[in-house]
Amino acid sequence: MSWLYLILAGGFEMTGITMINKLNKDRSFLALLYMIIPMAASFLFLSKAMDELPMGTAYAVWTGIGACGSTILGMLFFREPADWKRMLCLFIIIFATVGLKLSS
Fold first, then answer.
1. Under 8 Å between Cβ of 83 and 25
2. Would you say 74 and 80 are in contact if contact means Cβ atoms under 8 Å apart?
3. Number of domains, the chain
4. Cα(6)–Cα(3) distance, integer angstroms
5. What value does the CA radius of gyration of the chain take, rounded to a whole number of Å?
6. Which burial class, exposed, middle or buried, applies to 23 when counting CB atoms under 10 A from its CB (0-12, 13-18, 19+)?
């Protein structure tokens, strides 16, 4: 169950980070709520995952999901560059995250 909590935490992290971009473009109370609520949920699920998972593994996986996911969302929705160097770095992060999962 802790890995499911960690994946949920990463998903909410991606959403919260993406909403920071929305908040920068649209300075409204609603945009602020769209950022705060997923970030709070992300921390809640990360905390639940850390009940059973080692802190270093949980944090690294959570950060990896958030970093890779928000980068991909930026490429898809905000026209951020998707060159081969960025893609290679994403794959390295993903492989390292999988490696941490397999070693736990």
1. no
2. yes
3. 1
4. 5
5. 14
6. middle
Q: Residue 67 corresponds to which tokens in the numbers above?
A: 């970093």
Question: Which amino acid appears at position 2 of this protein?
Answer: S
State the Cα angle at 89 between 101 and 83, rounded to 5°: 140
The model's confidence at residue 16, banded by pLDDT at 50, 70 and 90, is very high
Of the candidates 14, 19, 16, which has an alpha carbon nearest to the alpha carbon of residue 69? 14
Q: Which domain holds residue 26?
A: 2-103
Question: What is the distance between the alpha carbons of residues 81 and 40, in angstroms, rounded to a whole number?
Answer: 29
Which tens digit of pLDDT belongs to each residue from 21-55?
889 988 999 999 999 999 999 999 999 999 999 99
Structure-token pair, residue 72:
């991909």
